[in-house]
Amino acid sequence: MSFRALLSRSPVPLGTMIGEFDTPGIGHIAKAAGLDYVFLDLEHSGFGLGDLKRLLVYFQAAGLPVMVRPPSKSGHHISRALDAGAEALLMPMVASAEEAADLVRMMRYPPAGRRGVALGMAHDRYTGGDPAAKLAAANRDNVLIALIETISGLEAVEAIAATDGVDALWIGHFDLSTSMGIPGAFDDPRFIAAIDRITAAAKAADVPLGQLVGRPEDGRKFIADGFQLICYGVDSNLLRDSLAAGVAAIRGA
Questions:
Q1: 113 vs 102: CA distance, rounded Å
Q2: DSSP 153
Q3: pLDDT digit string (tens) for 27-65?
Q4: Strand-pair partners of 229
Q5: What's the rounded Cα separation, in Å, for the pair 221 and 216?
Q6: In angstroms, what CA-CA distances link 241 with 35, 174, 245, 246?
Q7: Which of 54, 55, 87, 147 has its CB surrounded by the most CB atoms within 10 Å?
Q8: What pTM value is reported for the model?
């Protein structure tokens, strides 16, 4: 299944964030856990573009769509992530509709954009075929998800959500709260109001809204609030917490 097809899937797709474990079995492990997609992070992890290319193959083998956060919003990082085989890009700190529109152009081939053309690569599975058809398919299938995680992004969220080519919004809750001067204060009325504004903007533009959550109960709450993409946990934290719980239980016994 493509990531674009996942956006309209019901029930709400569930994923997890991969930022540590580059191992051949990771795709099948995630699939066996019942996940619908994975969030592969290159912004805060130690993964490079070579790691990305390899990891994408692991997830493709398991039949899991992947959302990739590049290291930055630069055209260099965008084009290389796409050429490595990424279909859906989660773009950090989108601050305006103008910037969102420019990111769309960087992801698309001419005449819709300015992505450089290299065919018979990882992104088209090294196949031959009609170039025009390949470019059109990529422009149709690639997905841009805008991270709303700054005050600037919050203040422009309605326009960002309505930008042609923005396929979904994602809340970067830690960065957003820090940008607001209330780091980690997710119960602060100002932060709650910000989330309500982002939720309303996504609904008005009819685009899905997603967020990373650390607890199952938070995931259930966000789904009830209308979120359409949920990412549960980070690989290293999930392993740490599972091990800690087991070790504590054994020692307690």
A1: 9
A2: H
A3: 999 999 999 999 999 999 999 999 999 999 999 999 999
A4: 210
A5: 9
A6: 19, 20, 6, 9
A7: 55
A8: 0.95
Q: What angle do CA 8, 53, 164 make, to 5 degrees?
A: 35
Residue type for position 47: F
Annotated catalytic residues are 44
Residue 219: φ, ψ to 5°: -60, -45
6: tokens are 């996942």
d(CA 30, CA 27): 5
Q: How far, rounded to the nearest angstrom, does the alpha carbon of residue 135 sit from its chain's CA centroid?
A: 23
Say how many C-beta atoms besides its own lie within 10 A of residue 32's C-beta.
10
The encoded tokens of residue 91 equal 């773009």
Query: Which DSSP helix (H) or strand (E) runs through 204?
Result: helix 189-205
Q: Where are any strands of DSSP class E within the chain?
A: 14-18, 37-41, 66-69, 88-91, 143-148, 168-171, 209-213, 229-234
Rounded-to-integer distance, Cα 63 and Cα 36, Å: 9
Residue 27 CB partners (closer than 8 Å, separation 6+) = 38, 58, 59, 60, 61, 62, 64
Chain centroid to CA 142: how far? 12
Write the pLDDT tens digit of every residue in 76-110: 999 999 999 999 999 999 999 999 999 999 999 99
Q: Which residues contact 145 (CB under 8 A, 6 or more apart)?
A: 67, 88, 89, 90, 91, 166, 167, 168, 169, 170, 210
CB atoms within 10 A of CB 24: 12
- Nearest CA to 214 among 193, 191, 186, 189? 186
